[in-house]
Amino acid sequence: MAEGIINHFYKDKFIAFSAGSHPQSVHPLAIYVMKEIGIDISNQRSKSVNEFLNEEFDYVIFVCSGDEDGVCPVFQGKAKKTLYWKIPNPTKRGNIEEFRKVRDILKEKIEGIVKNEFD
Q1: What is the pLDDT of residues 38-92, one digit of tens each?
Q2: Predicted TM-score of the model (pTM)
Q3: How would you label 88-115 residue by residue, b for 16+ Cβ within 10 Å and e otherwise?
Q4: How far apart are CA 3 and CA 41, in angstroms?
Q5: Tell me: domain 2-110, CATH 3.30.160.100, correct?
Q6: CA 108 to CA 105: how far, in whole Å?
Q7: Are 83 and 58 in contact (CB under 8 A)?
Q8: Pairing between strand 56-64 and 78-86?
Q9: Where are the domains of the chain?
């Protein structure tokens, strides 16, 4: 969802790539709640963090579950800034309201970065 938000609203400032330690398919409820705000992520794919080891990024943002079994991935590549966001995993409850909540949290946090970086 974060990749979709950045590449939709802030494509003139950033290019986002989403990756993780255990890539999975994009959840249908994530696709649905993103369409609610005009963003189509149906063509996105889950990528392994290993695909980006030779890249350098301005930001690497770790989105880790806010629950007790949350595990943050590790990125061995280069990053100018690293952030850790403790955000609940919406698939744990599997309901649309959780996906909306996470979408809105991500949108707000991303807006904060953009405002801080460009204001």
Answers
A1: 999 999 988 888 889 899 999 999 887 755 555 676 788 899 998 989 888 898 8
A2: 0.88
A3: bbbeeeeeeebbbbbbebbbebbeebee
A4: 9
A5: no
A6: 5
A7: no
A8: parallel
A9: 2-110
